[in-house]
Write a structure and sequence with these properties.
With about 140 residues, the chain is of the alpha+beta class. Helices cover about 20% and strands about 25% of the residues.
Length: about 140
């Protein structure tokens, strides 16, 4: 792997965000909440709700069809081939949490943990996390090797 400053910065930011935001880890004894299984074929994906897709935000490396509410404007974006992270200062945290859950389900992700407005999720191509509180929210997608 080539040693590059943007990659180190991305790893550092993700590490700091994970420590600061916390709460994403599943708690032992708390059941996970699975999403409906992914349907086969591209025609099985429901049309997106109104909003802004990651593709429209210019993100090249994440699930481009994932949409965010129009009011959710990322403050910071990391767009690397192996990880995509967006941070938000949400004006309506609950709306963002509901949209992320709905989008994950719509796109066939399995929600592995869901507690206190924090999620862990995965698909054959991606793993990720989302967490929110009244001051900040963060969404990360990591490409499965």
């Amino acid at each position: 792997m080539r040693n590059s400053r943007p990659a180190r910065s991305a790893v550092l930011l993700c590490s700091v965000a994970a420590v600061i935001l916390g709460g994403c880890a599943a708690t032992p004894g708390v059941p996970t909440v699975p999403s409906p299984p992914a349907s086969q074929g591209p025609s099985a994906v429901a049309p997106p709700p109104t909003g802004t897709s990651l593709g429209r935000l210019g993100i090249r490396n994440g699930p481009r069809q994932f949409t965010l509410p129009n009011a959710a404007r990322p403050q910071f974006i990391i767009d690397n081939p192996n990880v995509v992270t967006l941070t938000f200062a949400p004006t309506n945290t609950q709306q963002l949490v509901l949209r992320v859950r709905a989008e994950l389900s719509r796109l066939g992700f399995v929600i592995e943990a869901d507690r206190n407005d924090s999620l862990l999720f995965g698909s054959p191509e991606w793993t990720g996390s989302f967490t929110a509180d009244p001051q900040i929210a963060a969404l990360t997608f990591r490409r499965v090797p």
